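Hey team,

Filing this mostly as a record. A colleague (T.K.) asked me to run one chain through the structure pipeline before their review meeting, and I want the input and output archived in the tracker in case anyone asks later how it was produced. No errors, nothing strange. Just documentation.

Input sequence:
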Amino acid sequence: MTEAHAANGNRPVVLEVRDLKKHFPIRKGLLQRAGGTVFAVDGVSFSIAHGETLGLVGESGCGKSTVGRTILRLIEPTSGSIRIDGRDITHLSKTELRPYRRQMQIIFQDPFSSLDPRMSAGDIVAEPMRVHRTAAGRDVRKRVAELFERVGLRKAQMDSYPHQFSGGQRQRIGIARALALQPKLIIGDEPVSALDVSIQAQVLNLMLDLQREMGLAYLFISHNLAVVEHLSHHIAVMYLGRIVEFTDKRTLFTKALHPYTESLLLAVPVPDPRVKRAKRVLQGDVPSPINPPSGCHFHTRCPYAVERCRAETPLLREVKPGQMVACHLR
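Output structure:
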């Protein structure tokens, strides 16, 4: 089993994931016979402490969002374990899982499609409280008003509908809804990618303020390295269902060791036309998760690949203090 631990220090661990796998069977024909398997998540391990953010990055299709949804049990895992505050929730029934759903919430990528257009903004934020019976009567509206003010919305906007808000305001409603049950863990599935750059900064700063005030743990999923650098304490880099590098953000941006991480960093544009640096364009296409390459999944595109990379799967191991890499050459 591969492992990746956040440098938690004395902080209690909120989320612990071990060897998480999610494989989707492919059904074909009228009889829906098995026609293959999509290896979406293939053995992912990490932990997140109270008040910390883990950034999960990688190309589209690498399995980032599937990791987030599997942790929340919106998708059932194929194998592995998910622990919230030390309690294994992997195989809990819906009834047994209900108290733990209060402790983990999600902010979705699209701030419009994630909100019910038939409900007012106030009712959207109040719904989790009513479902879980954490507040009733006038207390619900009072709590919703407090949440609106905390995320930068006016109390008077509680009776408005999603189409009456801008994209940034809708995402603030989504954040308020995520906070309604006072969770310990929030999973952000590319929560700012659909917003303008100036609005992105406002939402990210809001998330940072909320983390400092409430001690929230974040799993922040994104393909934008600049955004991840701004928000995260530690970063895990995924490629084709596996974590290939895990370290703190400063080390990743200054001393990345995995060839895939290096390529991602070199692809980030420098906002200064006078600065020139070497460019490395990855050769070939991302392999299909239905038929991933043997050995190291990245060897088909890696400029340093050797025969061992094609035959043997590299384990994610600590090569420097606090830095874990899945590469035979490190």
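Quick notes for T.K.: Confidence is low (pLDDT under 50) at residues 1-7. The longest helix spans residues 197-214.
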